[in-house]
Amino acid sequence: MKKISPLIRELLEVILIAFLPFFIISQFIARPFIVQGASMEPSFQNGNYLIIDIISYKLNDPERGDVVVFRYPGNRSLYYIKRIIGLPGDHVSLRDGDVFINGKMAQEKYFSLGADTLAFNRTDFPLAENQFFVMGDNRAASFDSRNWGPLKRDDIIGNVRFRIWPLLEFEFFRNSN
Predict the structure, then answer these.
(1) Structural fold of domain 6-172
(2) Statement: residue 42 has pLDDT above 70
(3) pLDDT tens column, 114-165
(4) Is 39 an active-site residue?
(5) Active-site residue (options: 3, 5, 39, 56)
(6) Residue 67: exposed, middle, or buried by beta-carbon count in 10 A (0-12, 13-18, 19+)?
(7) Catalytic site residue from 56, 77, 82, 142
(8) How is the chain split into domains, by residue range?
(9) Is residue 176 predicted with pLDDT exceeding 50?
C-alpha cells in the first residue's frame, strides 16, 4: 500500500479543518438566504442577505409573527420567505381586506396601515395539526398561503435571525408580536 505524501496529507487536513465547521454550521445551525422579490417589503427588500436559524425549530415550534424560510409546497426545490400568520389549530379568515384568526382581527404591526389583504379563491383556512398559514408583508405582491393553502411544518427550514446585507442595516430579528 502506498503512503500518502506528507504534503497531500497536510493539504487534506487543512481542507478538513477549514470546511468541516462550515459544513456542520450550514447543515445543522444556520444558513444564508438572499431575498428575491418584493413580497416581504417593507421588512425585507430584494437582495437583502439574511442568516436563517435552522436549529431553533428542531427544539421549539414556530410562533405567530416569525419570519420563516421554507420549501414552496408546489416545488420543493424553491425556497420562499414569509411571515407566520396562523398556527396549527387556528382558523384563518380573510374578510374585507383584513385577517381574522379564530374570529378576532389579527394585530399586524409589521406593515403599513391600510394595506389590503386581498382574498383569492378561498377566504377561510382551517389549519390542521402541523399546518401554518403564511403571508408576505407586501400583500399585493405576495404569492403565499392565500394562493396555495396551508404550509406543512416539515417544509419550514428556519427563521430569520440576522440581516447582514446591506451592511448599514445589520439587524437582529425577533418575533414581531
Answers:
(1) Umud Fragment, subunit A (2.10.109)
(2) yes
(3) 566 776 667 899 999 999 999 999 888 899 999 999 999 999 999 998 888 7
(4) yes
(5) 39
(6) buried
(7) 82
(8) 6-172
(9) no
